[in-house]
Amino acid sequence: MQESALWSEGVPRTREGWGRLVDAFKDDIVRYAFRRVGDLQLAEDLAQDVFVRTYEARGRLGEVRNVRAYLYKAAANMCVDWLRKNKHGEKTIADGALAVEAKGPSAPEVTEACEELRRIEGILRRIPQDQAEVLRLHVLDELAFSEIAEVTGCTTATVKSRFRYGLEKVRRAMGKGEEA
Question: The domain containing residue 159 runs over which residues?
Fold first, then answer.
């Protein structure tokens, strides 16, 4: 069953349902937080906080139409709050690569993936943040434009526009042979 169909009824109210929700979205939320803060352990902690706070608030959430978008929005807010409170700029993927490499048995593949993410992030840092965020959410996290609109709090038309303009800027940067 596809994730979106599984959670079309909103936030689960039972522990069993909640466990299935966490299993379905945990890795996605950790990856998203990792790209935002650049530290795997911190990303895991922030993702856990997202799930704990959402679970505690489940009775007050009412009818969440799109659980996936809601979790991404909560993760985005959690990352921004953490970065603001700790007065850290976002770390680069390079800073978090060692933590990722230490976790997995396939270090060469992880290292290669980290290098690619580092290159992508280097290019994305050169375009406006709102456009870069839309590109990350659509390309890396595979969110639909309507979901990104929910996460970012703007219209779907604005999201599509940011995606188009951001993609044009990335293409120009790559066409010039710029290295991240």
Answer: 126-180
Which CATH number goes with the domain that contains 54?
1.10.1740.10
Report yes or no on whether pTM surpasses 0.70: yes
Q: What is the pLDDT along the chain (180 residues), one digit of tens a residue?
A: 344 444 555 677 778 888 888 999 999 999 999 888 888 899 999 999 999 998 888 777 767 778 888 899 999 999 989 988 886 555 544 444 444 434 444 667 767 777 777 788 888 888 998 999 999 999 988 999 999 999 999 999 999 999 999 999 999 988 875 443
Under DSSP, the state recorded for 138 is I
Taking each helix axis from N to C end, the angle separating 107-124 and 93-103, rounded to the nearest 10 degrees, works out to 160
Whether the CB-CB separation of 120 and 180 falls below 8 Å is answered with yes
Together in a domain, 26 and 80: yes
Q: Is residue 120 part of a domain?
A: no
